Each structure stands twice: as structure tokens, then as C-alpha cells.
What we know:
Elements: E1 3-7, E2 11-17, E3 34-38, H1 40-52, E4 55-62, H2 65-76, E5 79-87, E6 93-99, E7 105-110, H3 119-124, H4 126-130, E8 132-137, H5 143-154, E9 159-162, H6 172-175, E10 180-181, H7 185-192, H8 199-211, E11 216-220, E12 226-230, E13 233-237, H9 250-263, H10 268-283, H11 295-316
Parallel strand pairs: 1-4, 1-8, 2-6, 4-5, 8-9, 9-10, 10-11
Antiparallel strand pairs: 2-3, 6-7, 11-12, 12-13
Amino acid sequence: MSQIVVIGSLNMDLVVRVAQMPAPGETVPGGDLQTICGGKGANQAVAAGRIAGSAAMIGRVGNDAFGQRLLESLRQANVQTEHVRQDNDTVTGTAVIVVDARGENSIVISAGANGRVTPADIDRATPLLHSASLVLLQHEIPPETVEHAVALCAELPCRVILNPAPIRTVKPETLSHVDFLIPNEIEAEKMSGISIHDGDSASKAARQLRHMGAGVVVITMGDKGALLSRAEGELLIPAPSVIAVDTTAAGDAFIGGFAAALARGFDLPQAVAYANCAGALAVTRFGAQTSIPIGEEVDKLYKTFQREVSSKTSHNA
């Protein structure tokens, strides 16, 4: 299996379930507070580790109980943690998450140690990056660190996957070195300046992002699936229909599944379809890393769903 390296955030998620989201100034009752390992970077590393069988993580946690739990969660998911630094001068990052009865969530991030991941941390891990075939990045660490990592990877044989979340400006020179850009609809709208309301508008936004410098663009579109945009054109790839319990980390499961599929030699449409299955499984479970499936589960759903799609296609023909 090819080496997948994730550079990014590690958070402890503080999660409360509510019947409905509070309006500004409103207080609503909630369920018991839960602490669940999360952070976009760590979630994607766990997804890659569970689905592909191995991965490695670069980042920072505080030297505290939350940091220890996050490191142990990574190790249990087959993720190497030698390059996750324990910072004595700050606390582990946290995320306050409110989940409503429909499974939709609102999230507030406190960066903590994630805000102290530096270009020097990336340089110290250069031997690890030399062995990587895929490097995954997000926007929950400082922008200068993401830019440095992308520039360094451009000099190596590895390919870069950027999940531009939370959304912020990406320099053209950075975007030009991104092999796979994976935003959701909101992020794609803000980056491209094109409002997305259907498949055609998503295709226009994706083409604009490729015109801006990104290589392949994959826009995740929830239960509608994902739009794959490359030089050959656009293709909307459906997702399995499931009952959503909690959408937290669904996008991270998608990205980990996508990376795992690429590492196994899937072509791009197959990799997106496989990633859709990983994301679909994640929304059927509560929490961040607690919702991420293992490879055998994704394989099973992928095979079943591909047969269903093939059967429908043959019937319609």
C-alpha cells in the first residue's frame, strides 16, 4: 500500500445534541456533553488509516489529556504519530459542535496547538514526505504552513490533495501545485465566485477552479454525490442513499476514502464513487472519528452500490 501522509489539525470535539439549533440570543436544552476525537486533519488521517490500512500524521497537540487521547486514537487507526509534536506552551485544539435532530451541525473551532504548526515542522518531516505518494492538507493550520508544505511537495513525487476548509484565500502559486482540490458546495462557491444550485452550476464552478490553477476538482454535494471535474470534462457521481444521523466528519471520511482508493490504483471515477460510499457510511453514525468506517465496510458498500448503479443503467438502456 502506498504511503498516505496527512498534514493538519487535531481537535477534541465537545459535542451536544439538540432538537433544533438555537436562534441568536436563545437558550435551548441539549443532551449530555460528549468528548470525541476530531479535527479535519486527524479525521482524514484516521479515515486513511482505517480504510487504506496505514497512514501518517504531521501536526501538533498540547501536552495534556486531550492530546494524549488524540494520539492514541490515531495509533489505534493505523496512523503513525512520530511527527505529531506535543507542545508544552499551549493546549490541544478544541471544537464546540452542536448537532440537531436532522443530523446537521454547527461548529466553532479553538485552534490551540494547531495554530502553532510551522513550516519547520514540515521540514523536520521531509524524509516522511519523500516516501509518500499522497499528501492531504486542510485549512485548520496556519496558511503559511500549508503553502510551505504544498511548495515542498511540488518538488517531490507525491501528489497533493487540498481540502480548502474552513474557506480562505488560496494563492495562485499554491493552487497551481494542488493535484486534487476537494471543496464542498459552499467552499466551491466562495472560491470560484459562482453560485451553485444544480449540477450545471457546479460544473461551471469546478471549471473555474481548474482555470484558477487546480488540477482535478471534486466538489462534494452531500446526498447528491460528488462532481468530478478534469480535463476530459465533468461527471456527477451518485452516492448511496442512507439515513443521516450526523454529518460531522462525512467530508473527512470522503477524502480519506478517496486517498485510499487512489493508493489502491482506482481510476478517478471509481475513486470518487468509493469515497462517496465512505462518506455515506460516516453520516449514519454519531461523532467525528467514531463515525469513520473501516476498509471492509466501504468495500462491501462500494461493491453493492456499483451493482445497483449498473443494474439501473442497464434497465434504463
